[in-house]
Amino acid sequence: MTLRELAGERWLTVPNALSFVRLLGVPLFLWLLLGPQADGWALVVLVASGITDWLDGRIARALDQYSRLGELLDPLADRLYTVATLVAFLIRGIVPWWVLVLIIGRDVVVSLALPLLRRKGYLAFPVLYIGKAATLNLLYAFPLLLLAQMDWPGADIARPFAYAFTVWGVALHLWSGALYLVQLVRSPVATA
Fold first, then answer.
1. What is the pLDDT of residue 2?
2. pLDDT of residue 1
3. pTM for this one?
């Protein structure tokens, strides 16, 4: 989509406003985790991000407020939260380096494949439910990882769930990336 087409569509919608608020929360979340290490407030921002992520999709469907801008903002906010969370968690010692490498490495490989997909005449990979499942698992894993490292009585209960959702999220994320690459290899050249 060109900038002219993007400018010509309705962009001031409730779902787009929610996505924009989510984007504004990324630097606040990072500052809370890495500055004062206010983990409780960082957890509130992270949970609010997850809720608004769910809400923007529901509202877009209910009010028929789909937009190309929303299709760009929503995954951008998801990716920025994922990267910000992983980097902050790595710096704080909450996750090992290989979690960050696997998740971001998969995204880099899929991103590098996009020009090849576009040469075949396609704009993007179709959304896979396994990718959505990976994101959902990671959205559960991140707050649980934060809860598991906090000093409170439930930390020992949260820890196994945090690790389970992290492993499932990483595995599904890698699987969806492999499926995208298989789609790339198998996709025919689009005809005009």
1. 46
2. 46
3. 0.81
Do the domain assignments include residue 192? no
What is the CB neighbour count within 10 angstroms for residue 12? 9
What secondary structure does DSSP assign to the chain, as a single string? --HHHHHHS----HHHHHHHHHHHHHHHHHHHHHSS--HHHHHHHHHHHHHHHHHHHHHHHHHT---HHHHHHHHHHHHHHHHHHHHHHHHHTSS-HHHHHHHHHHHHHHHHHHHHHHHTT-SSPPP-HHHHHHHHHHHHHHHHHHHHHSSSTTHHHHHHHHHHHHHHHHHHHHHHHHHHHHHHHHPPPPP-
pLDDT tens for 161-177 read: 999 999 999 999 999 99
Tokens of 170: 């990483």
| Domain's final residue, options 93, 112, 129 | 93
In the chain, the amino acid numbered 146 is L
One-letter amino acid of 55? L
Q: Which residues of the chain have pLDDT under 50?
A: 1-6
Among 40, 69, 93, residue at a domain's last position: 93
